[in-house]
Amino acid sequence: MNLKLKSVFKDVFKNKTICNWFSGFIRINEKNGFQNLEKEESTFIILEFHNGIYVGKRILNYIEFQSFKVAQFKKFKETKNYKLVKENLIKTTGNEYQADTLIVNNILKLINTTF
Question: pTM for this one?
Answer without folding.
Answer: 0.70
